[in-house]
Amino acid sequence: MQHQLHPPAVIEHTTEAYLPQVTVRGQLIYCSVALAIVAALVSLPFIHTEVSVQSAGIIRTVAERNELRPLVAGTVAQVLVHDNQPVHQGQPMIRLQTEVLETKLRLNHSQQAEKLLNIRDLDRLVRATRPNLLSVSGLQSPIVRQQYEQFRFLLTENTQTQQKRKRELDVTRQLYEDKVLAQQEFEDKEFTYKTVVAQYASQIERQVSDWQASLTQQQLALDELRAQERQLLNERDLHTIKAPVTGTVSQLTGRYPGSYVQPGEVLGVISPDSNLLVECYVSPKDIGLLRPGMTARMQVDAFDYNQWGLVQGKVTEVSNDITVMENQPVFKVKCQLDQNFLSLKEGYKGYLKKGMTLRARFVITERSLFDLLYDKADDWLNPKNTPALAQK
Fold first, then answer.
1. 49-62+275-376: which CATH topology?
2. Are residues 322 and 331 in contact, defined by beta-carbon separation less than 8 angstroms?
């Protein structure tokens, strides 16, 4: 009797019993699948893909936001702009009351006009020749004209005194020549006459010297008044708050005529209209792989990337220090956009704006699928990479 190794129930499920039942078509499918798997495994080292890191980001302008802060205290007279209004650099935005400054400026201008009249008249008197000094006319400054009239009176009085002393001297000389008077009396009359003549010349020189000193003093006073005017104009200019940059105004709520502002108080914010950039916040574990010039692809949250696609850019700056955001340390990475819009297949464009959030993908390198699978398996199987085993 033949010895039976396996019972019939077991033999029905063996390979030897199953293979004769497989058709040629089934074997072909099996072989094709097996070959496809083998081909896929063999091609893993030759298929490369990009490796990237991701981070959150926001679209900003190159220039930082500017706060409007007055340098002086005062009461608001006019608010010339409103929220979301575009403004140009140097455009007046808020004016403070300047009544006190205007009063000081009017007084300053009046004093300058007075000094100019004094200077013009004094300059004419100083430049006048001695023979024409008594015939100067057309003086407009009341003070200088009064001084000049007093000077003319003194010279006229001196001239009359000279004439009297000259007649006395002539009489005395005739009597002296006739031996009627002594020589001493003649010399006294002659000395008196010469003294009066010398006083005439002395009065002229002294008065011209006084006018020259007064002219210098008036010029210095005019320079001081002009300096005060410049200071008042600068102070008045500080009472007009102007746009430091071209941009859009925001946060002007609560500013109205009659409200009082303090120096350094924030009155509003201007968001500059400059080129857009992307500021990304990369975690410390990924920052070591990033460098300027690397390619970045941005997925803007406001646009479905399945329809709009991604916007391209390049890394321009990598921060050297961390910044704490939401209690997490991050590094700021700035990227330059290749274009400021995304487009649909139909050609419709969606323009990027300040404040839009996005996800940035920084292309680090290209690696084969085999390397990626190996790294993944190494992370799973290598005990050194398992924290629990490493602690044991």
1. Elongation Factor Tu (Ef-tu); domain 3 (2.40.30)
2. yes
